[in-house]
Fold these 2 entries.
Entry 1:
Amino acid sequence: MYPSGSFSDRVSLVQLNSEVRNAHLELLSAHCATHQLRIHYSADHLARFGQAEVLRKSAEAAGALYQFYSSIAKRIPGAAPAPEVFPRLTAEQIARGIEALASHLRAQRELYLPLARPLSRKQLEMLSPYFSAECLERIRVVELHGARVAAPDFYAEARAMGIENLPQISHLESVTFLDVIVFNETFTDRGLFHGLVHCVQIKVLGLERYAELWVRGFLKTKTHYTVPLEVQAFSLASKFLRPVPEHISVEAEVRQWAADNRY
């Protein structure tokens, strides 16, 4: 424990916030995996047929995390809970939101493309078990130093309609604009893999369909990390980061989810 008032002398605040972001990403991966259990199985079925010891340990871990983060949340100045109820939108409003997202992704791709670079040879070799050569060769990446991706212009209209729980773009590790992946800070393998999954989703589904699924998924699940498109990206990135990686074809996974209507 560090004495009160001497923390900044003992620990780098940059390191602290880096570790906070890493923990946040791990929690999102766990949340996505749990969300998949929730939508496929009832609590009763999990309790009756799941491995009891694994479930108990999971419940204990989740409880400890809840207590820890709840104690922190109470100390954050001005912290307010996100709204739980979304407004009921018309078909026209939803269609406008879908078009706004698709247009934004196109425009941002053109904005960042001149600053982008191709993947390195080392990165191509690392990712080749998961993505086709054609996919990897067309991908471009951008690292922002001293800047962050701005929130979309349509956020103002969304908030005016009562939608507040929007993704905090500037806090995301990476943001995908078709085939250009932009990093808000430094480049990470996790952010690259996550972004690449979205690149494949857009290629397989088409931009308009991707935008529709993202918007409808967000309106249904209320948070961006439980949108099925995001759940898949978090899940596959988690498999990639395991000590013994599970080699899979991301495109095959995307096509299978699309065939099974899991988006």
Entry 2:
Amino acid sequence: MTTRTIDLNADAGEGFGAYTIGADAEMLRSVTSLNVACGFHAGDPVVIRGTIRAAKAAGVAVGAHPGFPDLQGFGRRPMHIAPDDLVAILVYQIGAVAALAAAEGVRLRHVKAHGALYNMAVADDRLAGAIAEATAAFDGFCLFAPEGSAMAAAAASRGVRVASEAFLDRGYRADGTLTPRAEPGALVTDPARVAERAVMLARDGVVVASDGARVTLAPATLCIHSDTPGAGRLAAAARGALEAAGVRVAAP
């Protein structure tokens, strides 16, 4: 499948208090959507508001990036939370970012789960359902989720639009899942390789896995994490390569 229009997204607003995490300012020069941390795995009200303001000034679409309540582990540790409780936790986070966005004259466009929650919900129907239910509580939001995942199915069953997501800075296994961060090859930090991946995914719907297998995907949005080393250069390389290949880069 060939995609001629594609979104480039980044997770952002993941600092806390006096601590800055991620190359947010650099990313805003290249991406078209920003996923703003909601305060439970990272971020705080001041950081969230400042991130939304910066995105608005750059003309970048804004979405909420809720995760597990795990500041110490940056939301990357598995947690086991009852689905009904998780819905409340997610609605709380999305609602907080939506309120801060409204105060800046910005309407949120999408939701993307963070870290361990995202990874677990790829195959866990109960977690996926909680994420979809929380997203459906807000009118018109779409959900960023991997193609063929439990998240995508749960969203579709609730009438929530899905933007299929692929990752430019993460390694893939032959089955289409991400290489765990603790394993070799989990991160892709070479700008030339990221640029090549972006064009292959947008134009050909293919990403090459760590073992050389060709994985077929049909993404509507491509992600680069703002805390990946050299993230600003990676995003610029991806954006430049996509445009040079005749691919329009725009928010979904």
